[in-house]
Structures are given as C-alpha cells and as structure tokens.
Amino acid sequence: MIAPMLEKVKGLSEARIAKKIYGLTVGEAAEIISRAFGLKDYEVARLIYDMKKKGLIILVDPNPPNNFIFYLFSHRSAWFWCVFVVVILTLLTIFVFPQTAPFIYLRYVLGSVYVLFVPGYVFIEALYPRGDELSQLERFALSIGLSLAIVPLVGLVLNYTPWGIRLEPICVALTALIYCLLLIGAYRKYGYYMLSAVVMNYEQD
C-alpha cells in the first residue's frame, strides 16, 4: 500500500510540502509529514529522498565544522581516517610484520587494496567532494579504473629517477601521492560543508 499513499501525497505537490518543511531538521520534517499524511517512517524517508533527488530540498549540516582541523577530527572525516589506517597497515605488513602466515595473507589483501583501489579512490574524493555527484557504484568503478592508470604512471616516473622501480621507492612515492590527494580531498569536502552553511544562512537572511 506504499504506492497509493505516496501518490496521494504527490497529488498535493511535493513542492508545497518542501515549502512547509523549509528550515526544519530532518527529524522535525519527518514528524510533520508523518502526522499530516499518516505515513510510516520508511515511507516518509522515501518521500524525503525523492524530494532531495529532484532538487526540491537540500539537506544541510546544521553544525558545520568551524575549521579544517575540527573537520578532520569529526565523524564527517571517517573516510579520511579509514584510508589513512589502511595505508599505514599496508606499510607495516610490507616492512615490519614477518612474511609468514597469517601476516602474509594480510599483506596480500591490504596490498591489493593499496594498489588497486586507494589511489583512484582518493583522486575521486578530491575531484568530486560532494557525496551526491556520483553514486557509490560509480565511485567504486572509477576508483579501480583510475588506480590502474595512476600506479603505472608512478612507476614510469620512478623509472627516470635515480631510485628506479624498486619496492621502497614505489611505496614511498605511492604513499606520498595518496596522502597528498587525501588532504586535498578532505580540504575540498570541508570547503563544501562551509559553503553549504554560508548559502543556508544567506537564504535564511
């Protein structure tokens, strides 16, 4: 019975609903819609998602980070620390942990992620900081594709340096590149949060 109920709501114009919930938190908006139309929680969530997808509403963080450091140590940057830890663990499995089971298997798994996913992922995060610019599947596919393009380029550059293509120079160069793109992506995401807050305050004024 979801479809008939949602059709009834849509008949009243989603744009009118969007105007009524403007400036409210998601929880407050969901409560108003639920009371007005008798919808269940998942039905309200679907309606709000549809309105966001159509550009009728914009979900803005009510408490954006005050500065870049605050952003880095907030829950918003969980992706940043996940990548940071994966890279550190990968380097530990290569240079510190013994090359015996079970550490060798951990090295295989983390090494694959480190080479085939992480470089492209941080590049995509730096290029598209907004979460709604690409779907998760698109981000995943592009991360793998770009990693397959970036890593050989790093090796090509190293080939013309005194260090050559060896394990240590490749790890250093790839880690430096990943962390540079990681910081750029984090700063661009922080800038997006700040810009969203400025736009919201301007519209309210």
Describe this protein's structure.
It contains ten helices and no strands. It is mainly alpha-helical. It is elongated.
Question: In a few lines, what is going on in this structure?
Answer:
The chain is an all-alpha fold. It is 74% helix and 0% strand.
How do the strands and helices of this protein lay out in sequence?
Layout lengths: L1 H10 L2 H7 L5 H12 L3 H13 L14 H5 L5 H18 L7 H14 L1 H10 L8 H24 L7 H38 L1
Helix pairs in contact: 6-7, 6-10, 8-9, 8-10, 9-10
Major sheet: size, sense and barrel closure?
none
Tally of helical runs: 10
Would you identify the regions where 5 or more consecutive residues have pLDDT less than 50?
1-8, 199-205
Question: Distance between the terminal alpha carbons, to the nearest Å?
Answer: 41 Å
- Bin the helical content: over 70%
Q: Which structural class fits the helix and strand makeup? A: mainly alpha
Helices and strands, in order, run as HHHHHHHHHH
Shape annotation: elongated
Number of strands: 0
Key terms for this structure?
205 residues, mainly alpha, 74% helix, disordered C terminus, disordered N terminus, 10 helices
